[in-house]
């Protein structure tokens, strides 16, 4: 297994609960499996996954445990390596190795990765994506929304929670008036509210036709989120998937929508499996990223493409990077992101 570090500067700083990030650091992974060389990416994000050092150590343990010769010749040598990578403890490291395996498997079978996940999905040339219009005063929020709709986006995600509920409601209503009823409007609160404030917000946001509010409460408050589902605006959970086993969220009936970040869940395979389980429970999956490089971002596009009639996903994130690992194989145009059709991740995605 080849493990190479990289650093990608961000176009603008990324503010997280763990601090402000100016660059994304991680590792590319290359591994031979079933006669093919697969590639993966492990890009940890503080507060969401393990640390960079823990990711590095886990990948090197996996490399020591793998029998790459056996894996290359007959596909049998990767099991011990996967056992070294616990999705709950080192999800980014597991994502890197799992993506390389999946890329090689799909290449060996001669199909793009999304069709390796689901052979019955047919040809999917693109996936709808949302635009994020951020947290700005009313006028600038409306300008950003109108620009996104002019670019073809039919779903907009607006950050809320840093301002008063009344002010955020004004922003959302102004956007709705500007873009009309045909555009889906989402709000992302990033766990900003207590239960009482969340109820106030959902009631106010409903007047703007908001389809769902993402993570209104603290990540550990599944009971509170379940109660909010009675308010008439759907509840999407994101940060809660870091705090809880996904099955606990499904069993708690705490969400109408799950925001699936493959890097956080331990790999594209884990994300696709959870999307399938969610759909079986009547919960909609929306695939997004942790502002990853092109390998992980492309893998996430394949996960989304393997979900029939997927809702607009948060995959239009390449512009958050000032530089990338290679030219982007998944350009965004008219509110959609292109899905590579070559075997594996796509012939453009190589190291």
UniProtKB/TrEMBL annotation:
Mg(2+) binds at residues 188, 214, 238. Its EC number is 4.2.1.113. It comes from the Archaea. Residues 138-235 form the Mandelate racemase/muconate lactonizing enzyme C-terminal domain. Keywords: Lyase, Magnesium, Menaquinone biosynthesis, Metal-binding. One of its GO terms (molecular function) is magnesium ion binding. GO terms for biological process: amino acid catabolic process; menaquinone biosynthetic process. Pathway: Quinol/quinone metabolism; menaquinone biosynthesis; Quinol/quinone metabolism; 1,4-dihydroxy-2-naphthoate biosynthesis; 1,4-dihydroxy-2-naphthoate from chorismate: step 4/7. The active site is at 159 (proton donor), 261 (proton acceptor). Pfam families: MR_MLE_C. Transmembrane segments: none annotated. The keyword Flavoprotein does not apply. It catalyses: (1R,6R)-6-hydroxy-2-succinyl-cyclohexa-2,4-diene-1-carboxylate = 2-succinylbenzoate + H2O. The keyword Heme does not apply. Its cofactor is a divalent metal cation. Belongs to the mandelate racemase/muconate lactonizing enzyme family. MenC type 1 subfamily. Converts 2-succinyl-6-hydroxy-2,4-cyclohexadiene-1-carboxylate (SHCHC) to 2-succinylbenzoate (OSB). This is o-succinylbenzoate synthase. It comes from Halapricum desulfuricans. The gene is rspA2.
């Amino acid at each position: 297994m080849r493990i190479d570090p990289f650093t990608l500067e961000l176009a603008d700083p990324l503010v997280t609960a763990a601090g402000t990030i100016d660059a994304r650091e991680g590792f590319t992974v290359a591994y031979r499996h079933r006669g093919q060389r697969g590639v993966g990416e492990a890009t940890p994000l503080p507060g969401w996954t393990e640390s960079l050092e823990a990711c590095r150590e886990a990948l090197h343990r996996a490399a020591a445990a793998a029998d790459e010769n056996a894996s290359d010749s007959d596909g049998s040598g990767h099991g011990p390596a996967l056992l070294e990578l616990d999705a709950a403890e080192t999800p980014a490291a597991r994502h890197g190795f799992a993506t390389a395996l999946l890329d090689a498997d799909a290449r060996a079978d001669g199909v793009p990765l999304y069709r390796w996940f689901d052979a019955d999905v047919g040809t999917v040339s693109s996936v709808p994506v949302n635009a994020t219009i951020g947290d700005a005063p009313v006028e600038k929020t409306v300008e950003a929304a109108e620009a996104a709709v002019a670019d073809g986006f039919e779903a907009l995600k607006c950050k809320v929670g840093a301002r008063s509920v009344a002010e955020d409601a004004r922003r959302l209503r102004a956007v709705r008036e500007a873009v009309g009823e045909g555009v889906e409007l989402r709000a992302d609160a990033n766990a900003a509210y207590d239960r009482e404030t969340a109820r106030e917000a959902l009631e106010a946001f409903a007047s703007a036709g908001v389809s769902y509010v993402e993570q209104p409460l603290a990540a550990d408050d599944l009971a509170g989120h379940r109660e909010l589902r009675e308010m008439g605006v759907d509840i999407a959970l994101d940060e809660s998937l870091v705090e809880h086993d996904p099955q606990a969220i499904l069993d708690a009936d705490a969400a109408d929508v799950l925001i699936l970040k493959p890097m956080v869940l331990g790999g594209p395979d884990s994300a696709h499996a959870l999307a399938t389980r969610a759909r079986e429970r009547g919960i909609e999956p929306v695939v997004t990223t942790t502002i990853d490089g092109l390998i992980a971002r492309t893998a996430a596009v394949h996960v989304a493409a393997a979900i029939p009639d997927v809702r607009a996903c948060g995959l239009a994130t390449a512009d958050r990077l000032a530089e990338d690992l290679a030219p982007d194989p998944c350009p965004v145009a008219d509110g959609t992101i292109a899905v590579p059709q070559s075997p594996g991740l796509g012939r453009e995605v190589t190291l």
